[in-house]
Design goal:
The protein is about 25% helix and about 25% strand. The chain contains 9 helices and 11 strands. The longest helix is centred in the middle third of the chain and has 21 residues. Bound molecules: zinc ion (2 copies).
Amino acid sequence: MPVKDIPKFEKQNPSVSVNVLCSGNEGGFVPLYVSKERDRLHHVNLFLIEGPDETRHYVWIKNMSRLVAGRTKHDGQTFVCNHCLHPFYTKDIHDRHVFNCQRHPAQDVKYPDPKKPKESVLVFRKHAAQFRLPFYLVCDFESFLSFLTHIDPNEDVDAMKATNLIDEHNTCGFACHRVSEYSQYQTDPFVYSGPGVMDKFYEHIMQESRTISDKLVDDQDMDPLTDTQQTDYDDTTTCGACGGDFTKSNHKVRHHDHVSGQFLFAACNNCNLTLKMPNRKRKVTEGQRPNKKPKIDKDYTKELFSSGRFSQPKIL
Ligand SMILES: [Zn+2]
Ligand SMILES: [Zn+2]
């Protein structure tokens, strides 16, 4: 029987679902046909052996766990996903995986060859992304939950249908923490609780943006190198960012911290240029604020505070 006829066979035998595996190009096994039928009383995994003159022979795979045992160091029984043939240690993890795996077509999972480091090691293409940002903001919102009483008619209808709406989050406060490796610019978290949270948040973020931009724009010249730093720099033969060799067209330069003025490492010229923080002021201004204003149920907030369950908002 050719593989294309298996759905017909499944139709004629409503209590059976069938999967077919074959051998992959690089050895091992790959799913050739994965049944669309779920939860049938019997499930059969077959292995297809094809002869040179289109002769076919199906072999019953009695134990999937044994078949793919070479894919894991685990020496006990495993639970194998029929879609990707990945073995799992517990049924629970397997079941959770299958739920997501079934959404995609059957696949042959290939692992990179550990003997080829270029294939098996993930590296950043944008080398600047390997380094810490000089400043970032960590923000957290607090909100009251209320039962949803109305649905915005402007919402995406399909998205609304696919979503089980339970309650509405009404923001009542936020905290914003500026994090910086420069202790002189590190501030305590800013906490706000009270009316007009989103307006206050926007105002605060814009203020932070201006303050941080001012620090970054104030480009510091590099401090003179110490003897050790100079020796390190002279001895370095590869770029500290991309790991490439220095060449005539892409020569060695000193990469320094433009906020503190400290020498960091020897880098190639190309990397040094990409590692520089953008030396310009942010162009976002108050007038460019997105038009969509967050909705705040003022009556509900008022009711909450008057109920006595929550204390009156205060600006810290
Ligand atoms: Zn899978
Ligand atoms: Zn480089």
